[in-house]
Design goal:
about 210 residues, alpha/beta, Rossmann fold, 4-stranded mixed beta sheet, 12 strands, about 25% helix
Length: about 210
């Protein structure tokens, strides 16, 4: 161990003194922020939609029996014809006249040449317009939502919570989380916004259930 590192650890030990570490120290941290939702389900969905649209994402509402038709219309409007599909996405979602490429048939280097990807999600957060992926079967490996230029995500109304703490609580236990708040974008020091730097430039959400 280097002299500098040992000196730093020594200072930490002296600052702590003889106080034993307690497993419940984290639980004892005061949390004055609001941890639960306060608005009704319809307002929660409307808030989620408004946040996604504010970030330049598309939101397309439908009922459970119209998922495939809605996906077909969205892809036709975007002129997307070849999409990789996460392994656990139900076949009933897959619209005709689209070339669906199985996730298992793609290496990461193949994804850049495909129009986009379709996945489900684990939870969505209305307050921040965030989609949370735990990378289960319907959400695919992380590269599916980072490399292609287009992401279509199916979100069900009962997956939408209001606050970040609610979303994290639902997603807990996953070894890896990806959070998506609109299309990928960043800005330089002059505040010039550039899309697609860290992921897809275009995001569409098919929001299933709730009022149209």
């Amino acid at each position: 161990m280097s002299v500098s590192r040992e000196a730093i650890f020594g200072r930490i030990r002296r600052a702590l003194g003889d106080r034993p570490a307690r497993a419940n120290d984290y639980d004892a941290i005061p949390r004055a922020y609001r941890r639960g939702g306060a608005i009704d389900p319809d307002a929660r969905l409307a808030l989620f939609q408004s946040r996604i649209e504010h970030y330049d994402g598309g939101v397309h509402r439908c009922g459970a029996n119209a998922i495939a038709d809605t996906i077909a219309a969205v892809l036709a409007s975007r002129r997307k014809r070849r999409l990789v599909v996460a392994a656990g996405v139900p076949p009933a979602w897959l619209a005709p006249r689209v070339e669906w490429i199985a996730e298992a048939d793609t290496a990461n280097e193949d994804l850049d040449a495909i129009d986009g990807a379709i996945t489900g999600c684990s939870v969505a957060i209305a307050a921040t317009g965030t989609i949370v992926l735990r990378h289960g079967a319907s959400e695919g490996r992380r590269a599916l939502t980072l490399i292609p230029d287009y992401h279509l995500c199916v979100v069900f109304a009962d997956q939408v919570v209001e606050t970040v703490p609610e979303g994290i609580a639902r997603a807990q236990g996953a070894p890896l989380l990806t959070t998506i708040s609109g299309p990928s974008a960043t800005a330089d020091i002059e505040m010039t916004r550039i899309k697609g730097v860290h992921g897809p430039r275009t995001l569409d959400v098919v929001l299933v259930g709730g009022p149209p």
